[in-house]
Automatic annotation (TrEMBL):
GO terms for molecular function: hydrolase activity. It holds the Pfam family Cyclase. Its EC number is 3.5.-.-. It comes from Streptomyces ossamyceticus. PANTHER family: CYCLASE, PTHR34861. It is an enzyme of class 3 (hydrolase). This is Cyclase family protein. Gene3D superfamilies: Putative cyclase. The keyword Transmembrane helix does not apply. Keywords: Hydrolase.
Amino acid sequence: MSLDRRDPEGAIAGAAKAYSNWGRWGEDDVLGTLNFLDEAKRREGMALGRRGVSFSLSQRFDMNGPQKGWRRRTNPIHTMLMTGTDAALGNQGSPHGIGGADDLITMPLQCSTQWDGLGHVFDHGKAWNGRDAQKVVTADGDLVTGIEHMAAHVAGRGVLLDVGRVIGVGGGTSRSSGAGSRGELPDGFAITEEHLTATAEAHGVIVGRGDIVLVRTGQLARVRREGWGEYAGGDAPGLSFTTAGWLHASEIAAIATDTWGFEVRPNEFEGAFQPLHQVVIPNMGLLVGEMWDLDALAADCADDGVYEFWLTAAPLPITGAVGSPVNPIAVK
């Protein structure tokens, strides 16, 4: 796909039409590309946990996160409702010396490691499967494609594409000095289909129908070393708009990255905001994950040369939510 950087409207409209999955699984569908992740694919994924080594792919949920209030997103606020102090002072009113602690958390559902639900993004007033956005997501939440519908489905074969480790700063396979030598891509680096294909070939994996694909850019490793900066909403490496065709043709079930926004930032069009989201979520029905911590998994994959694994990443079944925190677990 070639890009006319002056015409985001035309590019989005063309890609939305070319890569639409509207009606593919019936007019009542609420799962989108998760339909590709069937029982056979799940059995294939289960067989990959050979060593029994597990990795949490989640960032921490605490006040030390990257959020600064942009788009009304804050870091999680953790509050204790009952404490050991209350128990020791006898303030809990419980019999025979029993005491306990309770707590609550207040946070936007997409402030740390999370999934974007199918009701998260619209295209010209249309939600997933061609529904009217105003009838899908209201003040009562996502009445049709709430993320609770996906809770039982996100488990299968995971594939890591460590683009940061394989692709050099110049877009080749060099591991010379610079960000590429640390397994990191610079902000603004657009990952193309060619980069994804070259990375899969370097890892010896084939990406296909029903896979949950994880793309590591290395940005999270960099901001942990240098400070959060503009990680939440600023410039970042990420998928190029031109990968829309690959995302559609590969028939993957879901994709997640270690960045805030999944696609390259600044976006590739003048005056645009998240154009790839506008194509893949409401039109393609693709499940998109962001802010995943892929570093420990990537190090292990590099050590043993195995880039496929059993992956479970169920969203919380929050009724009517358009996104959800998640603690993905990869097992090798």
